[in-house]
Every structure is written in structure tokens, then in C-alpha cells.
Write a structure and sequence with these properties.
The chain is an alpha+beta fold and 244 residues long. It contains 6 helices and 16 strands. α5 packs across α6.
Length: 244
Amino acid sequence: MEEARPRFDTREPLLRHVCTVGELFHVEVTGLRSGIDKRPVDHAVRVLNHGIWSDVQGDRENHGGTFKAVYAYAEETRDAWAEVLGRPIGPGAFGENLVTSGIDTDETVLGTRWRIGNVLLEATAPRSPCRSFAAWMGEEDWARRFTDAGRSGSYFRVLEPGPLQAPAPIVVEHVPEHGVTIGEIFRGPTPAQATAIIDHALGTGTLLYEKVYLKALGVLRREGIERIVPDHLHSTGRGLGRVS
């Protein structure tokens, strides 16, 4: 990261804040009204299969869907960005629904399952910085800087919905053996990592988010390797109810 890196201590993984939309933000360059302005709430919120109750996506072509139902970002990583930018960055300021501590959302292995209270989440994909995010942050060349830093936070799908209130412990219930993290996918997987992602889907029947699948496929094709994954094992997550 630009001149600063997050410092994770040995605290137990914790959900620090749940954030919901404060006000809609008008994005001048697209004309859309974005729900990126997230703010922490002090009450329980409902988590449904499609995401946090009352959450809003202005650009539904690139946001939302079951694989991007919930976005989590580590407090430690956000604090490191605040140090770099020289200004406070509060919880929810990156548009995240969940603010965590004691757990690195970027080093979370694809397919890892978190239990928070009655809610069960599964890590699905990195976040790609968009024009709404850049406009919201008001930092020059923000999308490139965020990408170059290599720390995107993680999207999750909701396997078991329910109420969620912070603070609450995060229990890591399952970590897949393939070992490829959300951060490694964001920064660009190696051919070995791309192979591991596809082998995991084929071996376990795990449904991959379409863009993760295509990224892995592209890496292998550049190496002259062709892999075929059946259509039922990759999806955009749109128009789906609960997926398993």
C-alpha cells in the first residue's frame, strides 16, 4: 500500500460495525445516484440473500447480485489508508456493509465461510473500484491507486440470512484447501492459483462468481491452457435466489 500497510494484532475476529446507506450520492460523471454513502447503525439489521435490508445500488449492472450481497472491509486496512491520505476515514466510508477487526478481509481465502450470530457468509470476490467510488473519495486517480495498493476488501454471498448487529464475534467455520485469497485474485492470480480455483469448483461443485471464473480462465489461456467449467458452476449471481 502507498507508504503504509495495515497492522493486524492478535485480537479475536470481530464485526465492529454494520453500515447502511445514509444518503444517496449523486455521481456527476455517470448521472447515477449511488448508495456508497454507508454509515454505521447501532441496531440490528436484516441480512437477506440479496444483501443488507434497505441497501441501495445505483449501478445495478456492476453492483449487487447474490455474489456481491455483502461487502466487508477491515478497519485496520481503512486506517492505513487514512494514514496515507492524511485525513480521517470513518466506518462505512469505503461503501462497506461490514467493518471488521482482527481479520484480514484481503487474505481471506475464496470460499471461506464466516458465522456472525445466525448469519452465515461465504467469501466470493474482490471489489473492483468504480467511478462512483472514485467520485465519492475525491482523490486524484483514486481507482488506479486503490488497485495498485492491492487491497480490495471482500464480497460475500449470504448462505444463511438473519439479523446482524455489531459488535459481534466472527467465527471462521470453513476455509477451503485451495488457499487462494481474495487479495491474490484482485492483484492477479498466478497460473497455479488460477488452476487451483478452477479445480476447486470442479472438485467440490462450488459455484464461482462469473468474473472470478473469467479471470482465472484468462490467466490460463495466456499460458496456452484451456479449461472447461460447466455452465452450472459459474454465474453472475443475478436473478438467483439462494445458491449453494
